[in-house]
Amino acid sequence: MAKPILLLAIIDCIEEKHIQYNRIRIDEILEQKYNALMSKYARGSQFDNPTKIEYPFWHLHTDGFWHFSGIAQPKKMNVSATKKFLTEQVKFAYFDNDLWMLLTNDATRIALRNYIVET
Q: Three-class SS of residue 19?
């Protein structure tokens, strides 16, 4: 549940022009959006405690469309990264270019948000 919620938070940040380039970092605004969405969508789920942002931020790299700049071969690292590691050692995360182009288009961004929320 945490990965889709992080994607929704990123979509919101793109829409609000907080994220304008394909360079995503954990910052206060993204984390606030993520925590608000986690509270909204995780309520009543199997999760007793909300998942911290660093977990989906890190684990999205296993899905093939989310990458890191600044660290070599994250797939060889089979443990979760800490928030400190992600903010200090990773320059930024980024999407595949095709996905980024879709996220910058209003119509496809709305469609993707709706798909995530509905499924």
A: coil
